[in-house]
Write a structure and sequence with these properties.
alpha+beta; Alpha-Beta Plaits; Chitinase A, domain 3; Trigger factor, domain 2; 3 domains; 47% helix; 16% strand
């Protein structure tokens, strides 16, 4: 009768020994041999009439090895399930000489494996965590800027005969030239669209009075301030950090002159933007814009709370790992190359380089699993369907762009059901929804301290953190 024993060989690191007796695998081997003899097609013999000795000689060694190893797997899985061992990955076999398996001399066999045990740990008390809830102050300047953006976006462009304002929009052709305005073979040419006010303030007078097909020759850093110059260089395919690129000469020829007529702030415009919301006055319009700006920054601030929660959980949860085992396991996870279809084991150097990041990801996985299990967080199939539908409407420009009743259209449901059959999509959607629910749970545990902050300070803080 087979036995499995366990021996500790390190921190959360165990050795499992599986001992097989002949009676554990011989009956299944003999049955497999008999079944094979009934199916075997061997020239010179009728099907099912091949002598047992010939079958054993030809196929016995491989069938014997398969049945022994299958018996080992069966015993190992049964032991792990019955003893409820919570392990990482799969058991790794220790060195075993497979040549010991002799079909002509069945014997008792011993196989050994090593496993890494998942640790027990406690999460930090989130209700005591120092979490800050940022409240971005919405200023009149922010409201004015957004209103101007909307007026421009929905405005009308009219053609002009000549440049007469800093607000003129110029369609231009950039053509690289030498310092004497001579043509350069294989020089850069690129179309662009610019406002006159994108040029340096003391340069703009050179454009006033110009007509279509007129041109100017400029040295880039003489014509544009830093911010606009970076944009121009990028658009021309040049490196903004290259000092020589900034001093290149270009002919800028005007191909079209326009002037954007901003939308008037009237009831027609308000209704165009917010149909059916009964916005009649500029004051009500400004309040609506303010609400939307606040909603945007509140969403950003919520993301920031989630980021703080993540760091509280990762930085303040002490977890011990069976590092020796995990490094051995990671070493087996090689990459399959085009030349070699079997994964080559990683080198020790590769393992050491990858291990810190691997361990951080593993830590977050354990923390996530604990939150999900302790709080019975589940994602139902209908929630994944809803997620797929929401994504579809996002791709198509939102419900407003698809018309009323679009959600119930047969083609929408057909798309959703098609996505539900895509295993990778369902797994990704499940993970995203589960993560979202985890942070929603965590939000109910924390007690953020409100803090007013400007949009500029908030943006700088988030960018600094990401860097």
């Amino acid at each position: 009768m087979a036995t499995v024993s366990k021996e500790n060989i390190g921190l959360l690191h165990e050795k499992l020994t599986v001992k097989l007796e002949k009676t554990d695998y011989l009956p299944s081997f003999e049955k497999a041999l008999k079944d094979y003899s009934k199916k075997a097609n061997i020239p010179g013999f009728r099907k099912g009439m091949v002598p047992a000795g010939l079958i054993k000689k030809m196929y016995g060694p491989s069938l014997f090895t398969d049945e022994v190893l299958r018996s080992v797997d069966r015993e190992l899985i049964s032991y792990l399930q019955n003893d409820k061992l919570d392990i990482f990955a799969q058991p790794l076999p220790l060195e075993t000489d497979i040549r010991q398996l002799d079909v002509n001399n069945p014997a008792d066999y011993t196989f050994q494996f090593e496993v890494g045990m998942k640790p027990e740990f406690n999460l930090p008390e989130l209700d005591k965590a120092p979490i800050t809830g940022y409240k971005v102050t919405v200023t009149d300047e922010m409201i004015n800027s957004e209103i101007a953006r909307l007026q421009n976006r929905y405005g009308n462009m009219k053609d002009e005969n000549e440049v007469n304002s800093e607000e003129n929009v110029l369609n231009v052709m950039f053509t690289q030239v030498d310092e004497n305005a001579g043509d350069i073979a294989d020089g850069i040419t690129k179309e662009n669209s610019l406002l006159v006010k994108y040029f340096k303030e003391d340069f703009r007078s050179n454009l006033i009075g110009k007509k279509v097909n007129d041109y100017i020759v400029v040295q880039l850093d003489n014509a544009f301030d830093e911010k606009e110059l970076d944009f121009i260089l990028s658009d021309l395919g040049l490196d903004k950090n290259d000092a020589e690129a900034r001093k290149r000469h270009f002919k800028i020829q005007i191909t079209k002159i326009g002037l954007l007529e901003k939308k008037e702030l009237n009831e027609e415009f308000f209704e165009q933007l917010y149909a059916g919301q009964d916005i009649k006055s500029e004051s009500a319009f400004r309040n609506k814009i303010k609400e939307e700006i606040e909603a945007h920054w509140n969403s950003q601030a919520r993301n920031q709370i989630h980021d703080q929660i993540f760091h509280q959980l990762v930085d303040h949860t002490a977890i011990k790992f069976p590092e020796d085992f995990l490094k051995k396991w990671l070493k087996t996870q090689g990459n399959v190359t085009a030349e070699n279809q079997q994964a080559e084991p990683k080198t020790d150097e590769e393992v050491e380089t990858e291990f810190p990041k691997f361990l951080n990801q593993l830590k977050w996985t354990l923390i996530s699993d604990k939150i999900v299990q302790d709080n019975q967080i589940q994602v139902q199939p209908d929630e994944i369907r809803g997620f797929a539908k929401q994504q579809l409407f996002g791709y198509m420009g939102g419900m407003g762009g698809m018309g009323a009743g679009a959600e119930d259209q047969p083609w929408v449901n057909d798309y959703v059901e098609k996505m539900m059959k895509d295993r990778k999509y369902v797994e990704d959607a499940y993970t995203r929804l589960q993560t979202q629910k985890m942070f929603e749970w965590a939000e109910t545990q924390v007690k953020p301290a409100d803090k007013a902050i400007s949009a500029e300070e908030f943006t700088a803080m988030v960018e600094s953190h990401h860097h």
